[in-house]
Amino acid sequence: MPRRDLGLLIFSRSAVHFVNPGCVRAIPSRPKADNTMISLVRQLCWTLRAPTLSRRYRDAGIGFAFIALNQLFILPTQIILDIHSVSFPASILVMLLFTVILLVANCVYGETARFYSAHIRGPTDFLGRHMSFGFVASFIMLNRDHVSNAVDIPIVAGAFVVTTIAGYAGSFLLSWGTFQLESRFRGRQIRIHDHESENKAQPSPSIAWPAPLDGSRKFLWKLLRISAVMARGKSLASIGPAKRGFVSQFMVHLLNTPPLWICALLILAIGLPVYFTTKYETPFESLFFVLFWVMSVQFQRSLRSSHGLAPFPRVRSTLVIFANPVLVTSGFGTAYLWIKTSCTGQTIDDVVTQFRRHNSLAEGVLDIVKGRNSFADHIGTGDLAGTVLDAGIVCMSFKMFEYRRELWQTCITVFTTCAIMAAFNVFLNVLIAHGLGLQEADAVAFAARSVTIALAAPAVQNLDGSTTLMTALVIFGGIIFQMVADWLFSLLRIQDQGGQHLQLDSSKDSGKMEPAGEEREPARQRLRTEGNRVIAAGVTVGINAAAMGTAYLIERNSRATAYSALSMTVFGAITVALTTLPGVSEVIGSLAST
User: Fold this and answer.
1) Which domain holds residue 421?
2) Residue 382 φ/ψ region, left for φ over 0, alpha for ψ in the -120 to 50 degree band, beta for the rest
3) DSSP alpha helices (H): ranges in 311-449?
4) Alpha-carbon distance 560 to 562, whole Å?
5) The whole model's pTM is what?
6) Same domain flag for 591 and 442
7) Cα 564 to Cα 496: distance, rounded to the nearest angstrom
8) Does residue 491 belong to any structural domain of this protein?
9) In terms of domains, do 187 and 223 share one?
10) Over the stretch 354-387, which tens digit does the pLDDT of each residue have?
């Protein structure tokens, strides 16, 4: 027997012993043209047995349930705050509450971190990745609320560029330097090694774009076919070429694009019947916008993995940058609203107002409770989209719990950098914007140029600034970061996509590779430098790109996510606190008008 066939025979025999004989007999054969239905069922069962697929849909289901459940905490809290005229988002308070609860639970029950990693991390990552969907409604509202003086647009753009560059450079350098001082103050070098790597599962793949069957999956299928033949005592020559028929191709495509056809089925089964029965269009529009989002995410990820564009990396990078899901979904949504305007004969102001009727869902619920019109008159698609953003912000508490030790080791860096940059934003950004020629209300909007919208709105309202311009600045700031993030991280030589640092202390983990002799110190210095960059990058993203930047870091599976989430919260809270201090509004008003 030739050596190649002998090796194949040994490998096949080993595979037979490795696989349970009962499973071998149950191995589904390739679909045949003479029995389409049986082949369809076999292909479906074979694909659904993949562990990653079941986990993906479990995470998505729990994530959608969490969007509704977290409103049980946010809605009552926000209503109480609104009744007492407290301008502060309830989602931030609930996030802080969840963080405290998790920390206390971990002190009482030591397995809390392991439970979180096994059952909660996947759904929270799913929500964090798609949190940016909540900004689509704010972007679309710019069709109604926009800068009244078109001459100011170039000035706004110039002020945005100047303050953005200054903000990124200042945040990164300040956090870098502060961390160096904090490390010396603590008397030891803080490592960014994941102290609880055994409790942190691998990131769950996104439901929006399941990965196609890869080469290893195809190889496993061939191996199982060989094992089945050998188990029956047949010759290897009886194995014919594996041809994928139409049914197999259809099933692979169907199982790789489930969000698309699920949204389409829900539109047909729920959205259209509700609209034709009650004339209430919010369910239909909500599902339609979710479909837009899924298509946008799928399109961007397909560009990233496109084999046809592989020979043209620069072209592919450019297409991926401009295929930003928030930008594409907002474009689809804007086109839909303008088509709706032409079909209904209404003005764009009326259509956009029906799309989002209130600043928050709590305002709509209060009006419904007070008996002002019906539910359909107060809850639009844009109002429901805000619940996704709320859920994403609350999920940041889980990321901060996951990296609680790392955050504790860098808390001085985060709080100091956020405090200094908040003062810079509130005062110097306003002065720069006014110096470039903006009117008072527009210049004041730059006080919250990069604060997440949930916190920026109260801050700008306290200062009588333009909330419309503030919203545009926050959204465009987040979109621009998402578009150039990979380039920035590559420029800074930050390799932060889920990998863990090399463990230098063999007493902590003897199973980890450790540099020996003269290689130890260079390796240690390399880890310190990269760790410093990761911390500085996370703080910088949280301060300048807020929730959209943090959502992108979750998608990137970056170790900087926790620093970004904490910085986003602290920076926004300090900004709101500064704007409520006596005399601050007068100072900012004088800076914007003098």
Assistant:
1) 144-194+403-502+519-594
2) alpha
3) 313-322, 325-344, 348-355, 361-369, 381-402, 404-409, 411-423, 430-435, 440-445
4) 6
5) 0.76
6) yes
7) 13
8) yes
9) no
10) 898 887 888 888 888 877 667 777 888 999 998 9
